[in-house]
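ok, trying the design again with the full structure, not the truncated one.
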């Protein structure tokens, strides 16, 4: 593996990074002073060493289980441009107003929608199964609003109809302060395996797709009522399913739940709010670790990282 990347001299990080063709940069934390990175490279900067090292904050991510360095290198080298855009977005939006950060995420997502890496994935992907359109059940009971994803035969993959219904439901919740509690649940074995892949690529113009996201993504409304939102997930919680769940003020998971952000392999980045919601739950470094590796994490790891607040079944 040694010939697949080069460890960089920390001195290069205090001047503009010159290797414009590099897919990633790797550095030992023990070689870094706390203020060493004045000009981060335009690619993922991966740190090796203790998370508590004073220079750890300089890195985009640190290697830690269940992700190995080899997994990261393989994933980043397969989609280097998407990986670079992702870490630059996470740097930019760290600490930014949530609404502005969601706009920045959508614009970065649109940039990658027009990329060769995403076009290659669209051309090579396997045909998707055909399922009935999804349903979102919304029930108002006094000051509580219950929202339920109901497309179990497709593991609650979120299609356009479900996305639009979720936006309507969360618009109501955000505007009506008499709603004290919002509960998001789903039917079946999985909370959600993310956006319906059969719908990817149907809008090819990135500017038009950005305009649609601004008008329809549930994330914008969810951000306005996150403090009242309670979400419980079971089974798979993937892609946009996780991105939405992570907005919750209180997020619980079943013991066998698992979490994954696989978008990098598609030549894109999480575009349903996850670069904001997940990063603000677990920090941008662990968010980058999940997003760049595409690795599943268990409910136990999610609890340890703060992605979920408790593990509970039933």
């Amino acid at each position: 593996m040694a010939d697949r990347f080069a460890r960089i001299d920390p001195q290069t990080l205090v001047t503009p990074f010159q290797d414009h063709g590099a897919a990633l940069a790797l550095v030992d934390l023990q070689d870094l002073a706390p203020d060493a990175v004045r000009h981060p490279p335009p690619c993922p900067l991966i740190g090796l060493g203790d998370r508590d090292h004073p220079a750890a904050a300089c890195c985009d991510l640190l290697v830690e289980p269940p992700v190995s360095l080899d997994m990261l290198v393989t994933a980043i080298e397969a989609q280097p441009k998407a990986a670079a855009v992702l870490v630059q977005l996470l740097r930019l939006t760290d600490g930014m107003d949530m609404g502005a950060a969601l706009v920045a995420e959508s614009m970065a997502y649109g940039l990658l929608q027009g990329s060769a890496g995403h076009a290659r994935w669209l051309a090579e992907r396997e045909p998707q199964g055909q399922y009935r359109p999804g349903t979102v059940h919304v029930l108002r009971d006094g000051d509580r609003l219950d929202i339920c994803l109901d497309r179990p035969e497709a593991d609650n993959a979120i299609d356009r109809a479900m996305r639009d219904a979720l936006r309507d439901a969360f618009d109501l919740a955000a505007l009506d302060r008499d709603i004290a509690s919002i509960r998001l649940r789903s039917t079946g074995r999985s909370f959600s395996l993310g956006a319906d892949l059969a719908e990817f690529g149907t809008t090819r113009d990135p500017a038009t797709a950005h305009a649609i996201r601004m008008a329809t993504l549930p994330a914008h409304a969810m951000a306005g009522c996150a403090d009242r939102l309670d979400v419980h997930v079971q089974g798979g919680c993937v892609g946009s399913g996780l991105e939405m769940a992570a907005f919750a003020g209180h997020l619980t998971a079943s013991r066998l739940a698992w979490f994954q952000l696989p978008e990098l392999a598609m030549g894109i980045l999480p575009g349903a709010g996850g670069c904001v919601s997940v990063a603000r739950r677990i920090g941008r470094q662990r968010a980058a670790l999940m997003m760049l590796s595409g690795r599943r994490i268990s409910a136990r790891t999610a609890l340890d990282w703060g992605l979920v607040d408790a593990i509970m079944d039933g």
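Keeping the full-length input from now on. The first strand starts at residue 25 and ends at 28.
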